[in-house]
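Phosphoribosylglycinamide formyltransferase (Alsobacter sp. KACC 23698), 216 aa
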Amino acid sequence: MTRRRTAILISGRGSNMEALIQAARDPSFPAEIALVLSNRPGAGGLDKASQAGVPTAVVDHRSHPDRDGFEAAMQAQLQAHGVEFVCLAGFMRILTAGFIARWEDRLINIHPSLLPAFRGLRTHERALAEGVRIHGCTVHYVVPELDAGPIIAQAAVPVLDDDTAETLGARVLQAEHALYPFGLSLAAGGRARREGQRVRVAGGKPQPALVSPLLD
Ligand code: GRF
């Protein structure tokens, strides 16, 4: 099996990055983490990646006058490390259509909601404000429209009556750490196949519904 050389793009603490690095330690995982790239020199994830023995690079968006220059510098890093597949994990820069086209079908993201609900920021706060009973996270291909790409995998968590944005966010984050490695393995391992806005996953099985609330 060929393992696809994968870069993780981060801007912050990198807990999803850690989950991906951990999963890719298994030699049968279809991706190997070849690079962690941050647009912020102070991102906490950089130290964690180095400690895990993964090469890191910083392309600081502030040292580039425009988006094209910033992305060209990122592209140079990706090429220099022989990267074939890219995961965004808390990467807080908007990518241009040109960059996304270059990585078409090889660029995925994790978003902390059940898309297409709650695109954008502050998803947990907004889920509470809307009173949803089930919330969650989504791994999807990246397209130029924000948080709108074909969905590879989703995980749902219940919303509890006494949840705050923090407690709900922590429950979703835990689900993210399981879902992102799974989504990457589907996409990099060739089990997920894009068909327009839908993704077909070979070998998917039905399962019982998650109902929320759950009573004693
Ligand atoms: C996660 O909630 C992810 O879904 C969102 O940004 C957050 C990044 O957290 N895109 P971390 O840096 O992976 O801990």
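DSSP finds six helices and nine strands in the chain. Helices lie at 15-23, 44-51, 67-80, 97-102, 123-130, 165-188. ok done for today
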